[in-house]
Amino acid sequence: MTGAAGPTEGASRSGTHGDGGDVRGGLPSSFLSALRGPAVRRLLALRQEQKLTTRPVQLMAQSLEVTERTV
Q: What pTM did the predictor assign?
């Protein structure tokens, strides 16, 4: 297949990105932790504006690799 990397092509085989943290879904856990604060602030802003729907919650949960209920 042209233009597409196979399961191991182009991927880190060591499972780390140089920071020594766990890797889940391609991002080290330290990166996911750093994204959590801004994600929660955005959801709170949407809620305050009464524009919060399930879709942003689902996207945040998927991005942060947690359940919707956790978000």
A: 0.60
